[in-house]
Specification:
Layout (H helix, E strand, L loop, with lengths): L7 E7 L4 E8 L8 E4 L4 E11 L4 E8 L1 H6 L2
Length: 74
């Protein structure tokens, strides 16, 4: 029998404004510096900070525009 990783509730925030962008469920929490794709907004953003809440198996990700990707699009 295959075991399934527990889903983690993650709230996504925009770093510059602390505005909540979305709430999602993932099987793993992205690390600082990784790029995440937000399908509902059709945008890739870079993880600037992660706050883990072990007591309720959730996390908050603070995101910023992926500057490398923006510079390459010129």
């Amino acid at each position: 029998m295959k075991s399934r990783a527990a889903d983690i509730s993650i709230d996504l925030y925009k770093s510059a404004t602390n505005r909540k962008l979305a709430s999602v469920t993932m099987s793993a929490v992205p690390r600082k510096g990784e790029i995440v794709w937000i399908e509902s907004r059709r945008v890739a953003m870079k993880v600037e900070d992660v706050i883990w809440h072990a007591e309720n198996n959730s996390a908050q990700l603070y995101l910023a525009p992926d500057r490398d990707r923006l510079e390459r699009s010129d």
